[in-house]
Write a structure and sequence with these properties.
Layout (H helix, E strand, L loop, with lengths): L1 H28 L5 H53 L3 H6 L2 H43 L1 H47 L2 H6 L3 H54 L4 H43 L22 E9 L7 E10 L4 E5 L6 H8 L17 E4 L2 E2 L5 H6 L1 E4 L10 H6 L7 H10 L3 H5 L18 H15 L3 E5 L7 H16 L6 E5 L11 E6 L2 E6 L1 H7 L2 H10 L2
Parallel strand pairs: 3-8, 3-9, 6-7, 7-8
Antiparallel strand pairs: 1-2, 1-4, 4-5, 9-10
Helix pairs in contact: 1-2, 1-4, 1-8, 2-4, 4-5, 4-8, 5-7, 5-8, 7-8, 12-14, 14-15
């Protein structure tokens, strides 16, 4: 920045020196009586003018490079900061913010900031310095006339500021409308098979067209206000400067000013007028970027309700599965504050134990998983009173642990596995980035994924496509299991990993899950969510949930004899 400012000042100085050299050329060279002296003076003055032009070119080039570099650096840093900040937001943030809107801020808004910082701001600073220098030179050479012009310039600034405030508001609204269309596009493109199966292509195209039309209409209003701003600045400044120039011509006719002096004044007036015109446009760009920057700053200012403690406690490494305890946990989702997801929920998992959570949809099973990973915090209870409930690992409240330390101890296999746009090798290695190829292959074998991965065109190096579109549901699920096995966490969470699979795929995936649960016996505590009771008959304990509460728990055979909720669920699934 210091170098950019230095070259900016040098380039402006070279620009302002040009009229002085022109005055010397007119008054000194052309006014000489001797022909030879006149020729020598002309040659010297033209060389001086060329020297000024060379300096202007070199300094301007250096200024342009440095300011452009700054624009690119600021944009990259801003994108990185926003993206890193969004990655640390809890799921509550994404309940109210669409992914497409975040992407719009990461791309459209930051690109607009880049344009302003790397280009418009450069031109603005240059013209501000040149314009200020021109004004100083004009006041110095024509003090009386230009003092009046300067006083009148302040009158021009006030309406420009008023129009500028409207441009800024409309710029913010324009960026919001662009984000709306981006959100629609991101949502629909991620659901193309559904859109096409319902022949909704035309309907979605119309919806997107309406969003882009709204963005266009807002942009037109912004452009109209900005055009009025530019026109006002140019016309008002031109009127004032032409009046000052007219006074100069009158002084030449009256004999109180030389022709060279007038020529110098003309060039300074042209520099000032050009600077004012450019500054008018740059002001509009800055106002537009201000709207985009407000949106980015709002995103950066958003704070996740799940905060890491200032002084986190260390989670003891016992060399076995984690001891887990949920004590009197109450929880309401922020988007559904009137409906309890968990009520007085208490559950204890012994180290190395495999526990299954079963129950109807909406019973609160997935909520337990989300709270264990601290995607949400449990209800705090009445203000001023001690915490009503808590979740502990090895006796330590998870709210007292660093989020990284907590989540590194937990492995998850979700119901809908996430496959990244990368190779099979990198997808499995996502569980432990530093793992060797041999460790990845071992995890794939444990997950019964090795054979089908080797059969792919490029084996483990095969690109799996966006969201794993090249794989079947069972294959995606086994890669997710291999990823969790490679991570080798002391607490494993399995969320209905076989619910959407056919019989053959379910058999393979269930074998993989059994391998994941049985490997390192005693070194891993496993919590399983299952709708299909056949998959959890061998669990150490089955916990039956209903409306956010535990209504039964025990082993499979024991629960069947109680003739309760579990027995009814089993009768529905096992009776032909």
């Amino acid at each position: 920045m210091a170098l950019a400012l230095l070259f900016l000042v040098l380039a402006a100085a070279a620009t302002l020196a040009f009229p002085l050299a022109l005055r010397t050329l007119i008054d000194g060279s052309l006014g000489a009586s001797d022909r030879g002296a006149q020729t020598l003076a002309l040659r010297g003055n033209f060389l001086a003018l060329f020297g000024v032009a060379v300096m202007l070119g070199v300094f301007s080039s250096a200024r342009f490079y440095l300011v452009s570099w700054l624009g690119e650096r600021v944009t990259a840093d801003l994108r990185n900061a926003v993206y890193a900040h969004v990655l640390r937001q809890s799921p509550q943030f994404f309940e109210s913010t669409q992914t497409g809107e975040v992407l719009s801020r990461l791309t459209t808004d930051t690109t607009l900031v880049q344009t302003v910082v790397g280009s418009s701001l450069s031109m603005g600073l240059r013209n501000a310095v040149v314009g200020t220098g021109a004004i100083i030179m004009l006041v110095w050479t024509n003090p009386r006339v230009m003092a009046i012009v300067l006083l009148m310039l302040f009158v021009v600034v006030l309406p420009a500021l008023w129009i500028g405030r409207r441009v800024r508001r409309l710029s913010r609204a324009s960026q919001d409308r662009v984000a709306d269309s981006s959100a629609i596009a991101a949502e629909v493109l991620n659901a193309i098979p559904v859109v096409q199966s319902y022949t909704a292509e035309e309907r979605e195209a119309r919806r997107f067209n309406q969003a882009t039309q709204n963005a266009f209409d807002t942009a037109v209003r912004r452009t109209r206000a900005r055009s009025a701003l530019v026109a006002f600045i140019i016309i008002a400044n031109a009127a004032l400067l032409l009046w000052g120039l007219y006074q100069g011509t009158q002084a030449v006719l009256a004999g109180t000013m030389s022709a060279g002096h007038l020529g110098q004044t003309v060039v300074y007036v042209m520099l000032l007028a050009g600077a004012a015109a450019v500054l008018g446009e740059v002001y509009g760009d800055l106002l537009r970027a201000a709207g985009a920057t407000e949106r980015l700053m709002e995103l950066l200012a958003s704070q996740s309700p799940v905060a890491a403690p200032s002084r986190p406690m260390a989670l003891p490494d016992t060399g076995r599965g984690l001891a887990v305890r949920l004590e009197a946990v109450d929880f309401h989702y922020p988007s559904r504050p009137g409906q309890a997801a968990l009520q007085g929920f208490t559950l204890e998992l012994r180290p190395g134990e495999t526990v299954a959570l079963v129950g109807a949809s909406g019973a609160g099973k997935t909520t337990v998983f989300q709270l264990l990973q601290r995607f949400y915090d449990i209800d705090a209870g009445p203000p001023g009173q001690p915490r009503a409930g808590r979740i502990c690992l090895e006796g330590v409240d998870i709210r007292d642990l660093a989020l990284e330390d907590l989540r590194q101890r937990i492995g998850t296999v979700p119901q809908d596995p996430v496959i990244f746009s990368a190779s099979a090798l990198e997808n499995i290695r996502y569980g432990r980035p530093g793992a060797t190829d041999a460790e990845v292959f071992a995890a794939a074998r444990d997950a019964f994924a090795h054979d089908f991965l080797q059969a792919l065109p490029e084996g483990y190096a095969t690109f799996l496509g966006e969201r794993g579109v090249r794989l079947s549901g069972g294959q995606r699920q086994r890669i997710a299991i291999a990823r969790a096995i490679l991570k080798n966490p002391p607490l494993l969470l399995l969320d209905e990993a076989t619910s959407a699979l056919d019989a053959e795929s379910e058999r393979m995936v269930q074998a993989a899950l059994d391998a994941a649960m049985q490997s390192h016996a005693g070194l891993r505590t496993t919590l399983v969510i299952a709708h299909r009771l056949a998959t959890v008959q061998n669990a150490d304990r089955i916990v039956v949930m209903e409306h956010g509460r535990i209504v039964e728990q025990g082993r499979h055979a024991e629960l069947l004899t109680r003739d309760g909720v579990y027995a009814r669920l089993a009768a529905l699934q096992f009776t032909v």
